[in-house]
């Protein structure tokens, strides 16, 4: 059965995911910016260049739904906003797919009772070619769901 569209999702345009974490915001921030921690939930390999001029490089080998479906893939995020331990905004793109424009990825941590909540907002899929935009959107919708579940499990260990 297909997953229902969630509040904050606009098919082919933007998607939003939220995940509660049983750690304070400062501890959760480390799971966003430390390569070894990122590699436990978001990609097989991660590189982080800190600071406003920095960014993120992710590599993986799991098959993807979005084109090209090759077994290995690379993604890059270039930092455009940074306010640790609360906000990291990136221009985000899949390098091996020759995207015509990056999406905007905003990772925001909120303090909540008994921990924190990671709010993931990715938008700008409509700037991709019409032939792949909705497929890429759906792929990232599933990817964020899976990755955030892995993050919650890893943080709870």
Task: Put the structure in a nutshell.
The protein has helices at 25-33, 35-41, 130-156, and strands spanning 14-21, 45-49, 55-60, 73-83, 87-94, 103-112, 115-123. The chain has 157 residues and is α+β, with helices and mostly antiparallel strands.
Strand content: 35-45%
Structural class: alpha+beta
Instruction: Give the spatial strand order of the biggest sheet.
Output: 1-7-6-5-4-3-2
By DSSP (H or I, 4+ residues per run), the number of helices equals: 3
| Helical amount | 25-40%
Describe the main β-sheet briefly: 7 strands, antiparallel
Any idea what the shape is?
Answer: globular
Q: How would you state the average pLDDT, rounded?
A: 91
Radius of gyration: 15 Å
The helix/strand order is: EHHEEEEEEH
Instruction: Compute the separation of the termini in Å.
Output: 31 Å
Number of distinct beta strands: 7
Low-pLDDT sequence parts:
none
Any overview of this molecule?
This protein has helices spanning 25-33, 35-41, 130-156, and strands at 14-21, 45-49, 55-60, 73-83, 87-94, 103-112, 115-123. The chain is α+β, with helices and mostly antiparallel strands and 157 residues long. A hairpin with an 8-residue loop joins β5 (87-94) and β6 (103-112). The mean pLDDT is 91.
